[in-house]
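Q: How do we represent a protein-ligand complex in a form that can be generated token by token?
A: Start from the inputs.
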Amino acid sequence: MKILVTGGLGFIGSNFIRHILSSHSDHQVVNLDKKTYAGNPENLKDLKKNSRYAWVRADILDRKKVDRLMGQVQAVVHFAAQTHVDRSILDSGEFVRTNVLGTQVLLESARAYGVKRFVHVSTDEVYGSKPEGESKEEDMLLPNSPYAASKAASDHLVRSYFVTYGFPAVVTRSSNNFGPYQYPEKAVPLLMTNAMQDKPYPLYGDGLQVRDWLYVLDHVRALDLILEKGRPGEIYNIGGTHSCANLELARQVLRLMGKPETLIQKVPDRPGHDRRYALNCDKLRALGWKPEFSFDKALRDTITWYQQNKSWWSKLKKDKDYQTYYEKQYKWTVVSR
Ligand code: NAD
Ligand code: TYD
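Then emit the structure tokens for the protein with nicotinamide-adenine-dinucleotide bound:
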């Protein structure tokens, strides 16, 4: 099978491509990625000489280029997106363009070319905050950030293509991922890399917001399974492995790294910050998935990866885009009022 992966130079996409090529000797991957600030060819430099892999630099909004690739593939796994909640608070325009309009372009093209399978990779954030219990796939969507709203809009579009055209699409909603190759603006890699630099970690608000943490290598195994066995028109939650408050996570990581808790620095809360996410994943488990890694092992392996790949992340942290972003970020209180 030849698969079009969008956003494969990013965190989860690159882990997915590596997984697919190593576990299916008959699969080929073409990776359509614009290479935004979050797209990094180094994430897949080990595949440079792999004849079953190719990267095409393109925007998912570019219908002509998308069409050219769509004609060659049987399946699509769609990761490409603007993904950082904090950036969506500062400027939501690119989120709507890529996440909503970009998904529409892919759906139209895939439908025109008779693609047999389309996996749309989405997030638990579309459900909004869940003070108690677990979000189920049929729950109403109540997104609270511009990022989550743009993802919810794309989920609705995908569903409408199944209902209206019988287009064989599946939606996946995963919880917060962590693991190798995650851009160091997200909580876990920011915490780990700042700790290695003996820099404080900015903890938003009281730090009691709860997230459901999923190791990226368990996520990509779930996506592989859904690509093979997921039923068209269905939504699958992916997660339910380890729930904890941000403060607890920060303490655990610093303890494992042998760094002092004084590195945790409370900063003003993110506007619209969701208090808790929690997923019910019975449907995915019924399909045959269970996590392979314990949270503790996954966290230790991730720390080791960032310790052994300092040149990968220090280059990104020195980048102009990263610096400019952090100059703006903590002006939220001004931005939001
Ligand atoms: P990422 O930010 O690391 O990577 C996004 C990739 O998409 C980059 O390689 C970027 O260059 C590419 N891209 C962005 N805009 C593009 C465009 N217009 N055309 C082509 N390529 C474009 O993201 P990630 O964390 O790997 O997330 C991947 C997907 O998984 C996203 O759809 C995200 O919403 C979803 N998701 C992520 C998480 C998480 O914890 N990271 C959790 C749940 C769902
Ligand atoms: P993040 O990785 O941005 O994922 P999301 O907002 O999509 O859940 O953040 C995870 C949690 O950590 C979230 O509750 C916000 C919090 N957080 C901080 O406290 N400080 C930070 O610097 C970042 C980036 C996040």
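The radius of gyration is 19 Å. Residues 93-112 form the longest helix (20 residues).
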